[in-house]
Design brief:
12 helices; four-stranded antiparallel beta sheet; alpha/beta; eight-stranded parallel beta sheet; 2 domains; Class-I_DAHP_synthase; TIM Barrel; transferase
Length: about 350
């Protein structure tokens, strides 16, 4: 249950915490109190009188819900503000291949307006015989490249045993689609104060990803970014996954966390990445995370979906134009010559 407390009744918030805190999960955000496992009949007359609104059936992912936390969460890092009215570009190679290569890709990412450098040092590959990443050396290369161009680091953590080590190098943890419901891992990153990008699982519903995000929030970490990266449908012949663009506004209605789009893993083929990226911008995502490579044919992983530098720069220019058009007042839009 969520109780919206009237102005001037702050003592009721303390009272609710005192009364229910030992036996129930109690969360407070400004004048809203969420108490798990009770209903209105459990409140006394003073508490009911102090309530401006009582929501009896909140979603299971209550801390991530706009019913509990109406305003947008802005995830702040050294170089980025993610969420709200901000738009964040994240780019980099699928895998960190060498110190020299990731440095080159950092320069390209920066040129296109990115504030976050993505790159994998530990890779969850479909085949155990595929390249698995450079490990901690890769993290060192990634961190050095990001620092050289004033970028934040985004990298995947696959195992709860790696959390402390990766935390030394990253600004944002990535939880990949395959680990979206790895609850031990979610709990582990939830105990840190490092932002977490949570990617939607290939077969996950919207409620599934919201409930997964609640595992992170339950540990005390509310710096969460949700990523739509395509889901598995009946047709994956022409694209790797099906980009569920409709999930973006739905998630934005349900949760206060930033929602971004990953067109690379959705499309799976370079020729479709830019159109899907631009569609993500147009539908109002808070950012994009894309893979880039200067020689995709010889990339260590996922070369088929990597944008070449010129393609990436073309995409970022078009994305900026779409953002500008979306933010332009209607009377000005009518004056634009086509």
């Amino acid at each position: 249950m969520i109780i919206k407390v009237k102005a001037g009744q702050a003592h009721i918030i303390d009272e609710l915490q005192r009364r229910f805190g030992d036996s129930h999960d109690v969360f407070v955000h400004n004048n809203r109190v969420a108490v798990q496992g009770i209903d209105e009949s459990d409140l006394n007359s003073e508490e009911r009188a102090a309530a401006d609104e009582i929501i009896d059936n909140p979603p299971a992912a209550v801390q991530g819900s706009r019913l509990f936390h109406p305003e947008d969460t802005i995830v702040e890092t050294a170089h980025s503000q993610i969420g709200g009215d901000n738009f964040t570009m994240m780019a980099g190679p699928c895998s960190v291949e060498s110190a020299e290569h990731v440095m080159k890709m950092a320069a390209v990412a920066k040129e296109g307006g990115a504030t976050v450098l993505r790159g994998g040092a530990f890779k969850p590959r479909t085949s155990p015989y595929s390249f698995q990443g450079l490990g901690e050396d890769g993290l060192k290369f990634l961190r050095a490249a990001a620092d050289a161009y004033d970028l934040d680091v985004l990298t995947e953590v696959m195992d709860q045993d790696h959390v402390d080590m990766i935390a030394q190098y990253t600004d944002i943890f990535q939880i990949g689609a395959r680990n979206m419901q790895n609850f031990s891992l979610l709990k582990a990153v939830g105990k840190t104060n490092i932002p977490v990008m949570l990617k939607r699982g290939m077969s996950a519903t919207i409620d599934d990803i919201l409930n997964a995000s609640e595992y992170i929030a339950a540990g005390g970490n509310h710096q969460i970014i949700i990523t739509e990266r395509g889901i598995r449908t009946f047709d994956n012949k022409y694209t790797r996954n099906t980009l569920d663009l409709g999930a973006v506004p739905v998630l934005q209605k349900l949760t206060h966390y930033p929602v971004i789009v990953d067109p690379s893993h959705a499309a799976g083929h370079t020729e479709f990445v830019i159109p899907e990226a631009l569609a993500g911008v147009a539908i109002g995502a808070s950012g994009l995370v894309v893979e880039i490579h200067d020689d995709p044919a010889h990339a260590f992983s996922d070369g088929a979906q990597a944008l070449k530098p010129n393609e990436y720069l073309e995409m970022t220019q078009k994305a900026a134009a779409i953002r500008e058009a979306l933010n332009m007042p209607v009377h000005e839009k009518s004056e634009v010559e086509l």
